[in-house]
Amino acid sequence: MGQDPTPNLFAIQDLQSRQAHKVTWDALNALRTEKRLLAESVTALQDDVTKLRASTASQAGLPAVLSALNVQASIAQDHPFLSMTLSADVSIPDSVPTQLAWDVERFPLAGIHSPIVNNTKVFVGNKPGIWLSVLSIWWATNAVGVRLSDTRGVGSFIMNSYRAPGFVGAANTQPSTTLIVATGTGDIRGGNYTTATVFQNSGGPLSVFGGTDTSTWNLYYLGPLGLAVTPRP
User: Fold this and answer.
1) Alpha carbon 59 to chain centroid distance?
2) Interior CA angle at 122 toward 71 and 80, to 5°?
3) Is 173 in contact with 215 (CB distance < 8 Å)?
């Protein structure tokens, strides 16, 4: 909106009248400028509202998509969990590394472990990725010698080991937490399967507790290994 032609104020001979007309004219021009700026602001605001409505309409189906994804997600499948115990006390011979046979599954996981067949092994290689192993071994009291509990892979590859002296007065508990990287069933570094191996040298057989007050082994699948990285030349 443009301004009206500037009046010929010099045609007004009276100085006071001329000044009054100039003030009035300047005020009118300022008002017209404010009106123009306000109109431009309203137009810009209307454009923003139109864009926002279009964006909202395009995302109208997003909640339904997210809901469908949540329905399809399964903690049991995407992050499986295996919990095992011993049905009874296990007598561990003196100075002989012994794999524990986990014959009770509190939370079973098909294809990874069987409580009957090959029950000393957990076949983490059947689901490649990163596993968290939490092993807790309860020894009978005896102050002589040392107690070892290992998390091992193929070929007795030691992934983690816990060593403690014998103890008298209460059961000797050995907790051990291990991250296991399993790349598949052909992983020669130990990722095909894992075992819990114990050792003691008290001078005679010594029990690892099972039954009610039992040793436990829990394994959690944290997730896949991720994208492969191509080395730089």
Assistant:
1) 27
2) 10
3) no
Length of the chain equals 233
Question: Measured between alpha carbons, how far is 74 from 80 in angstroms, rounded to an integer?
Answer: 9
Tens of pLDDT along the chain (233 residues) come to 444 555 555 555 566 665 665 667 677 777 778 778 878 877 887 887 777 777 666 666 666 665 655 555 455 556 788 999 999 999 999 999 999 999 999 888 878 999 999 999 999 888 888 899 999 999 999 999 999 999 998 888 888 999 999 988 767 888 999 988 888 777 655 568 899 999 999 999 999 999 877 899 999 998 887 644 444 44
Exposed, middle or buried: residue 66 (CB in 10 Å: 0-12, 13-18, 19+)? Answer: exposed
pTM: 0.64
Per-residue 3-state assignment (H helix, E strand, C coil) for 157-173: CEEEEEEEEEECCCCEE
Are the beta carbons of 83 and 218 closer than 8 angstroms? yes
Separation CA 155–CA 157 (nearest Å): 5
Strands (E), the chain: 81-85, 90-92, 98-99, 104-107, 121-122, 129-139, 142-152, 158-167, 172-182, 194-200, 206-208, 216-223
